[in-house]
Write a structure and sequence with these properties.
The complex is a heterodimer of chains A (382) and B (431). Chain A is of the alpha/beta class. Chain A has a domain of 138 residues: 3-Layer(aba) Sandwich (Rossmann fold), CATH 3.40.50.11890. In chain A, 51% of the residues lie in helices and 11% in strands. In chain B, the strands form two sheets. Chain B has a four-stranded parallel sheet, sandwiched between helices. Chain B has a four-stranded parallel sheet with strand order 6-5-7-8, sandwiched between helices. The chains are: A alpha/beta (382), B alpha/beta (431).
Chain lengths: 382, 431
């Protein structure tokens, strides 16, 4: 029952013209919607301003690129092009603004290309710090949040600390449920197929947080009540899909090949903090400090105090996984770079791994299926 | 009218030789540091580098990008690139990084001189995300300490007070870190003196760049400017740098006063956007020389700093001005639309006929979205613009015949429109 519901809602929410977002706006035409490009965005600020934060995640295989190839040229990932194409084709019309951040060079340039092509929109760039070791970083980020909040206030009206605290609390609740779902999946993956969990989490990109939290609660109860027998599968961690998302078919294919995905970084912005953001004190400073000290490790966040490769090895051990599958979007430079130290540390720890490349618009998977099946066989008969 | 002069000439003046000597002396210092542990060395990125700060320690900068480009220009980059790919780097990773990592793995250096393990790997993060990855990997590979100066990107027209304070505090933290690591005390007066020298070098460099507004330009502001960039980044804050740029200005000024250009006749004036294809540097230059097309301005020559619009380091505010340089006065930390504006100013104020956009697959910071840039210049401003693709380091991505054909076709079209424009003005004049 739930899987059908997911698929219906997921299809509706991820349709090119954002029907669920249009509906939300239609209910009260004065309301504003701010889209954010992956990976992390301080959605609490947008929510507290009475706006709907919507996570952009490309166009999958649902859009033919007519113009964006010429604007971005070769060797640039798909999500950058499909995002611009959606704009040029009028699909992003329900949005009042776009927020980008320091994730990679292509996405950053996209921000300013969007700014030129959509001059009527509020387009902003959030500088997330790459030096959390500096005592000055928290104050800088809090002021950066203040700057963005001021822009949002210009669009939608004043925001006070109380509203920010309430938004933080709501998103804390949402993230805590996601953590619980991830833990349940790790404990008994047969009850929580990743193809379902992934859709459920990704819905959080589109739905109002209150609605998404209710859906998470109901689904958690449904997953808990399942009495599925475990099958003989290999426990793996998926790494590398933090921005452009793989086609759902590919996630299913990995599971069908005999893998339990026990942890992953799909739509990782939805579960960015490892613990709750405090709901006391200066909310912007608290959010800033949380970004510096509570964030999950990610290829788009740099913290030379704690290497990401240690984070991956910990994740594998914590989840008692037997292998790592790198699912890397074609031309994703942060993922390509991180693959090297990840691989070195996994080799050192004796953890097998496989690297595969995808594009959001991939539609043939024969070669990938063969590679995954061969990898699984090599582990089973090892 | 000459349409296809097969002009291949030596582009050298005496400054080219002086530049070579200076760069060799730099490698000698690095070799000495590798052998004796002295002077302290600091790895940095070219873009928005804070070489003045190093002077406060008598430390020498180590620029992996300069090493990488030196290899490419000497046609030696492919082997180290392949060594890095064997390690797991992707075909689509920045080839500068791969060449550098490959060199360390294989013990290759550009001149054969030894390179030291740096006292500190200092990532001056100014826009380029690849810098962060590159220096993390170097720190891991070389087991050397890493510090990142996180420079806020130019998301508005001017940096905020908070942006500047954040960078100043990190510069001060860097000073403490370097004191611990080098065992030397930071000499504030020496730092201020370095900032003052930089200011002088920048003034000279800016005057050189403004000489290219003359017609003919006494030098090519892309190909020749690249020759001058080495001393600019290594020696800007030192007496040798000031002397070098004084001599360079005098030489070019004399050339300009004698109305001597790069070519017998300056046929086209261009603005160049993007880094050059170093593995085919000479072949690429010849493709423009054939048409007597001279670059009068380039964005690549502002990677390390943007000085032709007036910015100078300020010895009265040394930390703040170093921060300002890192945040706002280098092309890589400025946003894409600010680059459009920079090129537009060059076209207007340096009186250019067209823009060449060189997309390099290695560098997404430079290249991602350059198709939109072309759209802006051709459709919105009506400026002839050519877009070509290759790479700055990897020789496998240079399609020589195709690139040459596109360049020829571009200039043929420009010739044609110049010819029709002169016929039109003749007719209008006689009517």
């Amino acid at each position: 029952m739930f899987s059908e519901l997911f698929e219906r809602t997921f299809d509706n929410c991820s349709a090119l013209h954002f029907p669920s977002v249009r509906e939300w706006k239609l209910a009260d035409p004065g309301r504003k919607v701010i889209a954010y490009f992956p990976v992390y965005a301080p959605v609490e600020l947008i929510h507290a301003a009475g706006m709907l934060p919507v996570g952009l995640s490309g166009a999958g295989d649902r859009l033919d690129i007519q113009h964006a190839d010429a604007r971005f040229g070769s060797f640039i990932c798909s999500i950058v092009k499909t995002t611009l194409e959606m704009g040029l084709a009028g699909h992003l019309e329900p949005f009042d603004g776009f927020l980008f951040s320091t994730i990679c060079d292509s996405a950053r340039n996209l921000c300013f290309v969007m700014k030129r092509n959509f001059p009527q929109m509020y387009v902003d760039f959030l500088h997330l710090p790459h030096n959390p070791s500096s005592p000055a970083a928290a104050q800088f980020l809090a002021e950066e949040y203040r700057r963005i909040l001021t822009e949002l206030e210009r669009l939608g009206g004043e925001v006070d600390d109380g509203a920010l605290h309430r938004s933080i609390a709501l998103y804390n609740g949402n993230r805590a449920l996601i953590r619980e779902l991830y833990q349940l999946r790790s404990r008994s993956p047969q009850q929580v197929p990743t193809s379902e969990l992934y859709q459920l989490i990704r819905l959080g990109n589109f739905l109002p947080v209150e609605q998404h939290t209710a859906l998470l609660e109901a689904t958690l109860a449904e997953f808990q009540s399942r009495n599925t027998k475990p099958r003989d599968s290999i426990r793996i961690v998926v790494e590398g899909s933090f921005c452009e998302q793989p086609p759902l078919t590919l996630i299913r294919l990995v599971e069908d090949a005999g893998c339990y995905i026990v942890d992953d970084d799909f739509v990782i912005g939805q579960s960015w903090f490892e613990s709750d953001v405090p709901t006391e004190g200066d909310p912007l400073l608290t959010l800033a400090k949380s970004y510096l000290d509570r964030s999950v490790y990610s290829s788009v966040r740099h913290d030379f105090r704690k290497p990401r490769w240690d984070g991956l090895v910990d994740k594998v051990r914590r989840n008692q996984a037997g292998a790592v599958l790198f699912l890397i979007a074609k031309f994703c430079e942060p993922a390509y770079f991180d693959y090297v130290p990840y691989k070195q540390e996994l080799d050192r720890a004796g953890i097998p791994h496989l690297q595969l490349e995808f594009e959001e618009k991939s539609f043939t998977f024969d070669r990938l299926r063969t590679e995954i099946e061969t990898f699984v066989e090599s582990l089973v008969f090892d | 009218m000459k349409t296809a002069m097969d002009e291949k000439k030596e582009y050298r003046g005496s400054i080219h030789q002086r530049q070579k000597d200076l760069m060799l002396a730099w490698y000698d210092q690095l070799d000495q540091a590798a052998n004796s542990g002295n002077p302290p060395t600091v790895s940095m990125m070219i873009s928005g580098n804070c070489v003045e700060l190093l002077e406060g320690f008598g430390a020498v900068p180590l620029y992996p990008e300069v090493n990488a480009l030196q290899l490419a220009i000497r046609h030696q980059s492919l082997d180290p690139i392949l060594a890095a790919e064997d390690l797991g780097y992707a075909a689509d990773n920045c080839a500068y990084v791969k060449a550098d990592i490959g060199c360390i793995l294989k013990g290759i250096t550009p001149t054969g001189a030894k390179l030291p393990t740096p006292t500190l790997i200092l990532c001056n993060f100014v826009g380029c995300n690849t810098y962060l990855k590159w220096f993390e990997h170097l720190a891991k590979l070389q087991q050397a300490p890493l510090y990142v100066i996180d420079v806020p990107f130019m998301r508005a027209d001017e940096p905020s007070r908070s942006d500047i304070e954040y960078v100043v505090k990190q510069l001060q933290e860097t000073v403490k870190k370097l004191e611990q690591l080098s065992g030397r005390k930071f000499d504030y007066d020496r730092f201020r003196q370095a900032v003052a020298r930089s200011s002088r070098t920048e003034e000279l460099w800016s005057q050189i760049k403004h000489l290219a507004r003359r017609s003919p330009s006494p030098f090519d502001a892309y190909f020749d400017a690249i020759t001058l960039m080495g001393p600019l980044y290594v020696y800007r804050a030192r007496p040798e740098g000031v002397e070098f740029f004084e001599a360079a200005l005098a030489e070019l000024q004399a050339k300009a006063d004698a109305h001597k250009g790069v070519y017998e006749q300056e046929h086209f004036r261009l603005v160049m956007e993007g880094p050059p294809p170093y593995p085919y540097f000479r072949a690429f230059r010849d493709m423009f020389a054939k048409w007597q097309a001279c670059a009068v301005a380039s964005t690549y020559s502002t990677v390390g700093g943007l000085w032709e619009f007036g910015f100078r380091h300020d010895p009265d505010h040394p930390f703040e001005s170093v921060a300002m340089h890192m945040i706002a006065q280098n092309v890589t930390n400025r946003n894409f639309l600010q680059r459009y504006e920079q090129i537009r100013r060059y076209v207007e104020e340096w009186n250019a006929d067209g823009v060449i956009i060189h997309f390099v697959k290695s560098c997404r910071l430079f290249s991602a979205g350059q198709g939109d840039m072309r759209d802006y210049f051709t459709k919105q401003l009506g400026i002839p613009t050519l877009y070509i693709e290759s790479d700055l380091e990897d020789p496998r991505y240079f399609a020589e015949a195709q690139t040459k054909n596109r360049i020829d076709a571009f200039f043929e079209a420009m010739e044609y429109s110049k010819a029709t424009a002169s016929v039109r003005s003749y007719r209008e004049g006689s009517a």
